[in-house]
């Protein structure tokens, strides 16, 4: 009977050693990360930070006689939304127009004028119309044509039924404050320190007709000044009335 017991003990020890080896191997393999290279994943690029106010540029258009027929000074900022082809996701771009990189051109007719600004792969066209009956002009159309690496074909945004920058013939239109011009659902234009005159130019800008934003800024100090003047007047009148009553009281006595 003794040999049988010894064989059983040896079999138990062998099984125990095998279980211990399996446990140690599982622990070591669980702690060691795989050495294979993780697959690359593509994600849409992060939206760029919004740039600061753009630099103000000076542009002009000359007619067939080489005389200036359109003047413009303004800072321009483009707000564009489009679908990126690689990621099938809407991307919003805010781009400043850089005057030192822009090539300007255009044309002037008796009742219409255009200003075209081109920078790299972006072309921005302003169209102005003149009503000869009322002698009023306005910005009637804006068109932006742009090419981006993430878009398969060139983007074009156009609106020919606008009514911005309304001015009088021989006068310039001015808006010093930042103003947003909505063009289409996916494109709007921010203007800064704008002054433009598309008709009746005689050497330089004519008298400026200011936009509502600038007029509101001027109206506030006028109202405050008028209120202070009224307050001072009330104080002076109250002082004079009080002084007159005091003199009348002395005479009665």
Jot down its keywords.
alpha+beta, Porin, seven-stranded mixed beta sheet, six-stranded antiparallel beta sheet, Lamp2-like_luminal, Lamp2-like_TM, membrane
List the helices and strands and how they pair.
Layout lengths: L1 H30 L25 E6 L5 E17 L4 E8 L6 E6 L3 E8 L2 E10 L4 E11 L8 E5 L4 E5 L3 E4 L3 E6 L2 E11 L10 E3 L1 H41 L1
Parallel strand pairs: 10-13
Antiparallel strand pairs: 1-2, 2-3, 2-12, 4-5, 5-6, 6-7, 7-8, 7-9, 10-12, 11-12
Describe this structure in words.
This protein is of the alpha+beta class and 253 residues long. It has a domain at 57-214: Porin (Beta Barrel). It has two helices and 13 strands. It has helices at 2-31, 212-252, and strands spanning 57-62, 68-84, 89-96, 103-108, 112-119, 122-131, 136-146, 155-159, 164-168, 172-175, 179-184, 187-197, 208-210. The strands form two sheets. Strands 1, 2, 3, 10, 11, 12 and 13 form a seven-stranded mixed beta sheet that branches. Strands 4, 5, 6, 7, 8 and 9 form a six-stranded antiparallel beta sheet that branches. Strand 4 (103-108) and strand 5 (112-119) form a beta hairpin. The chain is flat and about 110 Å long. The protein starts with a helix and ends with a helix. Mean pLDDT is 82; it is low at 4-8, 30-35 and 37-42.
Shape: flat
Number of helices: 2
* Largest sheet, strands/sense/barrel: 7 strands, mixed
The first-level CATH class name of the domain at 57-214: Mainly Beta
Radius of gyration: 38 Å
**Helix-strand string:** HEEEEEEEEEEEEEH
Fill in the CATH topology of the domain at 57-214. Answer: Porin
Kindly estimate the percentage of residues that lie in beta strands according to DSSP.
35-45%
Overall pLDDT: 82
Instruction: Note the gap between the termini.
Output: 148 Å
């Amino acid at each position: 009977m003794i040999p049988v017991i010894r064989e059983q003990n040896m079999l138990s020890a062998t099984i125990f050693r095998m279980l211990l080896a399996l446990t140690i191997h599982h622990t070591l393999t669980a702690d060691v990360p795989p050495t294979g290279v993780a697959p690359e994943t593509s994600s849409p690029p992060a939206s760029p930070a919004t740039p600061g106010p753009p630099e103000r540029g000076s542009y002009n258009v000359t007619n067939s006689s080489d005389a200036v027929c359109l003047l413009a000074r303004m800072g321009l900022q483009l707000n564009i939304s489009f679908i990126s082809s690689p990621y099938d996701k809407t991307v919003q771009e805010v781009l400043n127009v850089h005057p030192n990189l822009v090539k300007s051109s255009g044309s002037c007719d008796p009742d219409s004028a255009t200003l075209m600004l081109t920078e790299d792969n972006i072309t921005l066209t302003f169209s102005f119309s003149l009503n000869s009956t009322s002698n009023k002009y306005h910005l009637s159309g804006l068109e932006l044509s742009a090419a981006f690496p993430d878009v398969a074909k060139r983007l074009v945004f156009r609106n020919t039924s606008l009514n911005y920058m309304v001015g009088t013939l021989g006068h310039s239109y001015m808006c010093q404050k930042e103003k947003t011009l909505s063009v289409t659902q996916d494109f709007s234009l921010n203007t800064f320190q704008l002054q433009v005159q598309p008709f009746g130019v005689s050497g330089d800008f004519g008298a400026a007709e200011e936009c509502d934003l600038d007029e509101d800024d001027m109206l506030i100090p006028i109202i405050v000044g008028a209120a202070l003047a009224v307050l001072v007047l009330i104080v002076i009148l109250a002082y004079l009335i009080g002084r007159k009553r005091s003199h009348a009281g002395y005479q009665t006595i």
